[in-house]
Amino acid sequence: MPVQTALWKVGEQPVRLVGAALPSERLLETMILASPQMLSDEWMLIGQQSDTGFGGRVDLLAIAPDASLVLIELKRDRTPREVVAQALDYAGWVERLESQDIDQIYGRFRPGRNLANDFKERYGRDLVEEELNQTHQIIVVASALDESTERIVGYLNAREVPINVLFFQVFAFGDEQILSRSWLLDPVRTQANAAATSAGPNEPWNGEFYGSFGVDENRSWEDAVKYGFFSAGGGAWYSRTLQLLDPGSRLWVKVPGQGFVGVGIVAGRVQPANLFRVNTADGLKSIYDAPRAGKYLDYFRDDANMCEYFVPVRWLQTVPVDRAVYEVGLFGNQNSVCQPTAPKWRHTVERLKSLFPNHSEQRA
In the predicted model, is pLDDT for residue 273 greater than 70? Predict the structure, then answer.
């Protein structure tokens, strides 16, 4: 049934806040432009009212940390079904955007600014042209949704179309108004659907997981091998896809910019940093009390959104980073974990199996 949020004022006698409405649906777009975090802490807005060239305008366009695009359509005065249909229509235009088109869109949105420079400043890595707009998400922003439209969105998502609905509901609080936000579907599934596909033909997922392990002062591959884990953190976009990993899953790990460094079997569920324990010579210890090379965002250890998250892994075969396997044509992606459906992933796994012969050890 359609999403509904209820709020109460805290007190010995709680008071339920009354539902209200914004003076204008266009006010929501103004608020989002002033504070894009209302949509997501993970996206950077790059366009507004972008002309599709066939009589339509995309309300908002954003870019994610993996250089994929996010098409955002606001309901405004349209019915929910109309805005979903419009968003799907516009997605065909987004899919065909080339790097120069995206540069021009950003130039109109932020005159005098450079997309590559701003992307690096925001996400701490270079904007690689080959990664730009390989995938995209479709986000519908609405204050209400009928059951028929909800079924349509659910049907599309179940078939790996990366579409979701973000609800904003308004409540009266004295003379002021409060805005609440909630997702129709778990955003980890929408992100996973986007990461799995790529521009061009796709095929059924082969059951093999891809993992991107960013090595820096916060994360050490030597630690991961020694203690048996895979980790990611620094925001929900980076850590939430770890939820895709079930015990028994096989995970192929790549260090960005270096190559593939190992394959292992997932041995447990994802855990936040403050709960994760490792075996040491002195017994079971918190990762933060164990001898380690990485910091694992220790300054965020109690922040559920920003902290490092860990997945226990039984490594089947690993190599040091300086011996990472890199070949032209192998799959790569900036999502921490994904279930690729691009044909390149099948080729990559077949090649890696020959290079990591211990991959076939009995799964847990």
Answer: yes
